[in-house]
């Protein structure tokens, strides 16, 4: 390090004045640890190639292919060839440098000259992170082909940079998980902890354990009744997900949560549920409990082709009644050893202060998520020898629309005050080797509250940017939060990704169709247009739909928060229930929602209805506006209804649940591929601002 600093200083002292005008560090999240600026810029060209160092070609081939795909998505330059050898002008050169031990396993050096851009690291993962830096900088360049000359030497401050997703109480599609692997990787977040089983609150389901929601998300051949009916992953799907994550530098940590939060197991085997503490607690005095749960873990760990392929498995062990502390400790120790028997390392939630006792629980090579200091005292757990992941609930827990913890994290406070050595009110010394890193979490406690994948992502995206910065860089006092947030706004989710449904245009009008504009081909200053129609007639008075498979396809699938969609509609008199006005893979907007006859929308199994019926055989001007809080209907310029903050009370309790009535507006089809309405739509405008009525 001293040699680099001295060299940089001497160059600056002796070179002519014009060379002092060097490139400043490019904006990247997480920020670069070191940057030594040069002059000029590297430029990708149509003839550019991704070149692999011959000795490293096999190790780096997967990284090169992913970079090739990403550059095609981002730059739209024809797919760059991949070859082995030495680079020429305009090439990207990837190599391994085992001698550069200062960088560590995840570190990399990116050296951009005018002719060649070189990325090297001790291991493939470091080189891969270097490609993410390259892509983020290219994303912010208006032409997506320029990188400033200079050298970055970058490495993470913390080994574990994680995110926990509760897929037990809310199902997330496999596509969502695959997108999240890539999204996390784009920000060099390397630890995706998937919570595979959980249950709702007993008191919210009429205090009936049999009807309380519970789910286990994996295919089970040992216990087919265990697999959730409303959403699950096959064994092969989960293997493939882990393989994808491995290629993107992300470690997937599957969690089977026992012996609390375990109603999914006791619902199909009643005898293993606790009669004393509740059926979401397993009966730890019943030997059948061990037989069943052993079999569950073994199903995913045993054999030549195990379902859990990564190095670590999370065994849960959280929030069990402390009256049974000794049994709980024995149970925890048993499953640590079981996981280790199959060659994995165990993770667990911190509960051993809450469950204090004499029964020993293995600590060596075991990693603990510290979430609440009252359950696991951080100082005590460190003395016991656990590796620690900082996951403090008061800082890092998102519980969507619940009214407790955070709906959206306090990003300014996190940026200014938190990094993984901060665990609740305890702060360890910088560089403590037992603090492996941190992880933030989404817990979907409010089962059935209408939250969608899109809503979860809206909460996670800004948090991912800030926490990626804090887990890679630590505390950065050189840049205020406001400056960071401004720069972060220019960086998205990765090449080709748009989970937030963001659409841009200079004047805010991102899509438009007006009658008589060359059959819908000439649409607004945005340059977007209708790309195809089936069983529709585009006439001067609008687009005519004939029901069934009748649609006009647009170039954008949907728009996310904030937006306004305005259009005029003239429905026929004989429209059936569930007749669709707009549709996409994620949502539909209906002229007649189910049997109500009223305007409404559906997404992710939830159906919402506005208290308004669109009259047949007459023109009505409709505007629908949405943000992360809810969805509003305007008719002829007047607000008719705001679907927001509706609450449902739980009988016999003082508790209630807020229902989330949001909508990512579907735009892939005007009409639908199966249940289109009959009638005419005209004057369609799509704005990327809320409540835009003119």
Automatic annotation (TrEMBL):
InterPro entries: Beta_hexosaminidase_sua/sub, ConA-like_dom_sf, GH, GH20_Enzymes, Glyco_hydro_20_cat, Hex-like_dom2, HEX_bac_N. Keywords: Glycosidase, Hydrolase, Signal. It comes from the Bacteria. The active site is at residue 319. Pfam families: Glyco_hydro_20 (PF00728), Glyco_hydro_20b (PF02838), Laminin_G_3 (PF13385). Residues 1-19 form the signal peptide. The keyword Translocase does not apply. One of its GO terms (molecular function) is beta-N-acetylhexosaminidase activity. Residues 26-154 form the Beta-hexosaminidase bacterial type N-terminal domain. Gene3D superfamilies: 2.60.120.200, Chitobiase/beta-hexosaminidase domain 2-like, Glycosidases. This is Family 20 glycosylhydrolase. The lineage of its organism: Bacteria, Pseudomonadati, Bacteroidota, Chitinophagia, Chitinophagales.
């Amino acid at each position: 390090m001293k040699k680099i600093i001295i060299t940089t200083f001497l160059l600056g002292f002796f070179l002519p004045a014009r060379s002092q005008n060097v490139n400043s560090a490019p904006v990247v999240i997480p920020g670069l640890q070191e940057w030594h600026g040069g002059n000029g810029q590297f430029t990708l060209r149509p003839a550019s190639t991704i070149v692999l160092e011959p000795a490293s070609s096999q190790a780096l081939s997967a990284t090169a292919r992913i970079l090739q795909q990403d550059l095609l998505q981002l730059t739209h330059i024809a797919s760059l060839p991949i070859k082995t050898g030495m680079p020429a002008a305009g090439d990207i050169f990837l190599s391994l440098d085992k001698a550069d031990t200062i960088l560590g396993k995840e570190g990399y050096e990116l050296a951009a000259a005018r002719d060649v851009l070189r990325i090297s690291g001790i291991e493939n993962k470091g080189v891969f992170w270097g490609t993410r830096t390259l892509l983020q900088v290219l994303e912010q360049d208006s032409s997506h082909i320029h990188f400033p000359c200079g050298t970055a030497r970058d490495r993470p401050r913390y080994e574990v940079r994680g995110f926990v997703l509760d897929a037990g109480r809310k199902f997330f599609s496999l596509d969502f998980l695959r997108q999240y692997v890539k999204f996390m990787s784009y920000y060099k977040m390397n630890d995706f902890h998937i919570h595979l089983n959980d249950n709702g609150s007993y008191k919210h389901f009429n205090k009936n354990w049999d009807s309380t929601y519970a789910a286990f998300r994996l295919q089970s051949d040992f216990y087919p009744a265990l697999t959730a009916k409303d959403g699950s992953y096959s064994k092969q799907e989960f293997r493939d997900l882990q393989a994808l994550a491995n290629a993107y530098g992300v470690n997937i940590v599957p969690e089977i949560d026992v012996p609390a939060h375990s109603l999914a197991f006791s619902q199909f085997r009643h005898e293993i549920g606790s009669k004393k503490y509740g059926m979401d607690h397993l009966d730890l005095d019943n030997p059948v409990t061990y037989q069943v749960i052993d079999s569950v873990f073994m199903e995913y760990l045993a054999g030549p082709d195990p379902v859990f392929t990564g190095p670590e498995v999370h065994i849960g062990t959280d929030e069990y009644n402390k009256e049974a502390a000794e049994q709980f400790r024995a149970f925890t120790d048993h499953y640590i050893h079981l996981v280790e028997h199959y060659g994995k390392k165990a993770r667990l939630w911190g509960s051993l202060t809450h469950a204090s006792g004499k029964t020993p629980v293995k600590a060596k090579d075991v990693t603990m998520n510290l979430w609440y200091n009252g359950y696991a005292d951080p100082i005590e757990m460190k003395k016991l020898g656990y590796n620690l992941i900082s996951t403090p609930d008061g800082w890092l827990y998102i519980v969507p629309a619940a009214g407790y913890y955070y709906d959206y994290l306090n990003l300014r406070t996190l940026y200014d005050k938190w990094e993984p050595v901060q665990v609740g009110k305890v702060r360890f010394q910088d560089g403590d080797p037992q603090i492996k890193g941190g992880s933030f979490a989404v817990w979907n406690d409010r089962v059935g509250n209408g939250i969608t994948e899109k809503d979860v992502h809206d909460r996670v995206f800004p948090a991912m940017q800030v926490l990626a910065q804090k887990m890679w860089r630590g505390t950065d006092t050189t840049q205020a939060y406001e400056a960071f947030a401004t720069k972060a706004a220019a960086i998205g989710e990765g090449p080709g990704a748009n989970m937030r449904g963001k659409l841009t245009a200079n004047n805010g009008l991102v899509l438009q169709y007006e009658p008589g504009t060359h059959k819908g081909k000439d649409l607004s200053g945005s340059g977007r247009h209708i790309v195809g129609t089936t069983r529709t007639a585009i006439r001067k008075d609008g687009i005519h739909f004939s029901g069934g498979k009748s649609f006009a396809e647009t170039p954008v699938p949907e728009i996310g928060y904030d937006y306004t969609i305005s259009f005029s509609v003239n429905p026929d008199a004989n429209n059936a229930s569930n007749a669709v006005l707009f549709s996409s893979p994620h949502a539909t907007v209906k002229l007649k929602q189910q049997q109500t006859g009223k305007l409404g929308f559906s997404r992710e199994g939830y159906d919402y209805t506005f208290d308004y019926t669109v009259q047949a055989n007459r023109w009505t001007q409709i505007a629908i506006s949405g943000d992360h809080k809810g969805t509003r209907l305007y008719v002829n310029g007047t607000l008719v209804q705001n679907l927001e903050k509706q609450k449902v009370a739980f009988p016999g309790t003082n508790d209630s649940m807020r229902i989330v009535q949001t909508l990512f507006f579907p735009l892939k089809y005007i009409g639908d591929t199966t249940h289109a309405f009959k009638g005419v739509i005209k004057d369609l405008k799509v704005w990327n601002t809320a409540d835009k009525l003119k």
